[in-house]
């Protein structure tokens, strides 16, 4: 059982999970209260099953594509989206400073 994932959202605003640098969207909720999440890359059939916020089943190895973003960069994007949506009265220009964080995070991960 694995609990090392992060809640996220897709570009369309759907609930998603970030796991091992891949993004999964909710496909269905099962009768046994588990939820099936599938990779957001259309031609990829990898999936994970979640129950009580724990991954109980996973076939997430051997994706047919590269991860979209590193986990750090994806988390910064998700945090930025949440901040903009939560505080709609604050001008978006103030949030530009977070773009530098994203760039710095990406640059430092490229050096490793």
Q: What would you report as the Rg, rounded to the nearest angstrom?
A: 16 Å
Q: What order do the strands of the largest sheet run in, or round the barrel if closed?
A: 1-2-3-4-5-6
The average pLDDT value, as a whole number, equals 73
Q: What's the end-to-end separation, in Å?
A: 29 Å
Beta strands, count: 6
Whole-number count of domains: 2
Portion in beta strands: 25-35%
- Give the structural class: alpha+beta
The H/E string reads: EEEEEEHH
Q: Choose one word for the global shape.
A: globular
Described by strand count, sense and barrel closure, the largest sheet is: 6 strands, antiparallel
List the total number of helices.
2
Helix content: 25-40%
List low-pLDDT spans. 105-112
Q: What do these coordinates show?
A:
- It is a single chain.
- The chain is α+β, with helices and mostly antiparallel strands and 112 residues long.
- It folds into two domains: 6-58, no CATH class; 71-111.
- It is 28% helix and 29% strand.
- The chain has helices at 71-86, 97-111, and strands at residues 6-9, 15-19, 22-29, 35-39, 47-51, 54-58.
- It has a six-stranded antiparallel sheet, covered by helices on one side.
- The longest helix is centred in the C-terminal third of the chain and has 16 residues, at 71-86.
